[in-house]
Amino acid sequence: xxxxxxxxxxxxxxxxxxxxxxxxxxxxxxxxxxxxxxxxxxxxxxxxxxxxxxxxxxxxxxxxxxxxxxxxxxxxxxxxxxxxxxxxxxxxxxxxxxxxxxxxxxxxxxxxxxxxxxxxxxxxxxxxxxxxxxxxxxxxxxxxxxxxxxxxxxxxxxxxxxxxxxxxxxxxxxxxxxxxxxxxxxxxxxxxxxxxxxxxxxxxxxxxxxxxxxxxxxxxxxxxxxxxxxxxxxxxxxxxxxxxxxxxxxxxxxxxxxxxxxxxxxxxxxxxxxxxxxxxxxxxxxxxxxxxxxxxxxxxxxxxxxxxxxxxxxxxxxxxxxxxxxxxxxxxxxx
Length: 335
Known about the structure:
The protein has 335 residues and is an alpha+beta fold. It has 5 helices and 14 strands.
């Protein structure tokens, strides 16, 4: 039994930082709450400069939640053609301090408040700079916590946090943004004798990377397996949902691109066609998605352990694109 409490922040250019409202926790088994994410409104992608603390291979302890979180994010990103992230030890310090701040204050939040236990900076960028990251960086992140009455492995704790983020219509685009330095933090407290797991990720760099030259890319993509079949209680609530929704398909271009979706479907093994909700910057009532991002998602949950065929079409910079039909398979993860 889990009580999930999720929140995440905007990835924003330091000069145009968009602060977001933080959500709270739900009140029952499997309930969740989240903040209102947005992503960088970058108009250029200059070459990234070397950043102190960046590691060529991850140095997280074997079997740790931090290593599991890092590996899960990279596995999802690389499988679908998004650039791999690299561990940065400066960001590790900042985000570990934030995860600890959450646990000490029993609070899931993106922004810290001066005077509280463990305070190291208000925003993800503030905390990164506090520990030595370049002050002009693009920076942001995600944070979450959940309570479980079942003691499992540290690896499972880390994977659960990442899968929660990737199931959100507004959450997943943040972790797929082409920013490649990452810090990972995880902290544990106890509630009623069982673990409460607090986690946070910070993504930051001096620039965004070029993502694609031949049309947008998606997550999930062909062959992706084990993705959560549903999510719920995201804040803001994804449009046209009245309860849990299904696996979101993220469509992403480069920072200078503009994506509009015109059609999207999922087909289950029995041939039933699900018309997807189409969300992009121009029609997003919550104004969280940037022009180079779009999401197609079923308004109701998908079935666990089931293979679906996806078809998505739209325009990028006014030029029509159609992603060839492809398949992905859900797991049995249920929040």
